[in-house]
Write a structure and sequence with these properties.
There is one protein chain. By secondary structure, the protein is an alpha/beta fold. A hairpin with a 3-residue loop joins strand 2 and strand 3. The termini are far apart.
Length: 381
């Protein structure tokens, strides 16, 4: 598959709905599950699916993402026949710079894709939590003689108006596409996962941008144009766990689901491992009077308080008298003494002073990256 299909991960999203958590980093770089970042799931899916060449398209605040991915060695993508390439926006001869949509991002990187010369291009989002075998999807794409295959998942009909909805015939050939329809005709929602025959997509994009520059987005523009042209466009049904963590509520919900030992993602499955770049930290330490219940505690943590149904990420410090429930504490956050945190997400490098209360019974509370809340820090005392 290393020469048959190239993966292009779109990882430039700003993630404005995550508020303070994405003030300094792109959404795919947001920490998840204690020792991962969101993009790790898509990258690991590529490796587990046998895909050896990956392009990562960045745009908004890319530094943390670039540092995290590096040369791809954490995913085994640093070999002679494998590799990961970070692709930034750049000024071209016609003045174009920023990516204006998903399809435009691929168009801007045609020269890179041509160097790889794949038969198929797999377009992915870098901000979803799921496990998926893309090789199985490719097999179905080939069997259907498709020009385009779209990954879809069934959602509750009441939520279907939030998604791009595919209407199919009895063979799962897509006959109609509705972008966030007010009255959806089906509950097959697009996952933002596409397999294209590269030759066909390449000519489609080049023709469009030489004429009217209208094919900016895959969902809004490219899929409808393929259907109008009578192309073979098929749906690939996915029935596993998939979560778009684009909001505070969905990120918190996915984190709580992640905690359980035999959870929906089956993280202890050695046949489909999730890889990440991890810092080297000492083993976590749980103090004598501390208590931990149904929680994930990662390397480098010091726990001096009571932790219940929560995630403490790498190098988190929790001092005595503090209680944390149903919460996510991101890397290197420091929680002072006698603090109460419930139903919250605390961002990287945040500092919570002694005696602070982080809890709102009506919504998930968020402390931003490096934000300082309440009390005095030890060095100030």
């Amino acid at each position: 598959m290393s020469t048959e299909m190239l993966a292009m991960i779109l990882a430039g999203g700003q993630g404005t709905r995550l508020g303070k958590l994405t003030k300094n980093i792109a959404k795919p770089a947001v920490p998840f599950g204690g020792r991962y970042r969101i993009i790790d799931f898509t990258l690991s899916n590529c490796v587990n699916s046998g895909i050896k060449k990956v392009g990562v398209v960045t745009q908004y605040q890319p530094l943390a993402l670039n540092n995290h991915i590096g040369n791809g060695s954490s995913w085994g993508l640093d070999g002679i026949d494998s590799g990961v390439t970070i692709l930034h926006p750049y000024s071209s001869s016609d003045g174009e710079k920023w990516f204006e949509g998903t399809a435009h991002a691929i168009y801007q990187n045609i020269s890179y894709i041509d160097q790889i010369d794949p038969q198929y291009v797999l377009v992915l989002s870098g901000d979803h939590i799921y496990k998926m075998n893309y090789e199985t999807m490719l097999e179905e794409h080939i069997a259907n003689a498709a020009s385009l295959t779209v990954g879809v998942i069934e959602v509750p009909l009441k939520d279907a108006s939030r998604f791009g909805i595919m209407n199919t015939d009895e063979n799962d050939r897509i006959i109609e596409f509705d972008e966030k329809p007010a009255e959806p005709k089906s509950n097959l929602a697009s996952m933002g996962i596409y397999i294209f025959n590269w030759g066909r997509l390449r000519s489609t994009l080049l023709n469009s941008y030489s004429e009217d520059d209208q094919l900016l987005d895959f969902g809004k523009h490219v899929i409808p144009s393929y259907l109008e042209a009578g192309e073979n466009v098929y749906a690939y049904r996915f029935d596993g766990y998939w979560k778009d963590v684009g909001t505070i509520d969905s990120l918190w919900e996915a984190s709580m689901e992640f905690i359980h030992l035999d959870g929906v993602l089956k993280m202890r499955d050695k046949n489909w491992r999730m890889f990440s770049k991890n810092t080297i930290s000492p083993p976590h330490f749980i103090a004598e009077n501390a208590a931990v219940e149904n929680s994930l505690i990662v390397d480098g943590c010091y726990v001096g308080g009571k932790i219940k149904n929560s995630i403490l990420s790498t190098d988190v410090q929790v001092k005595s008298g503090t209680t944390i429930e149903n919460s996510v504490i991101m890397p290197r956050a420091t929680i002072g003494r006698n603090v109460y945190i419930k139903n919250a997400i605390v961002g990287e490098n945040a500092i919570i002073g002694d005696g602070a209360v982080i809890y709102n019974e009506n919504e998930i509370e968020v402390v931003g990256y490096a934000e300082v809340i309440g009390g005095k820090r030890d060095e100030d005392q």
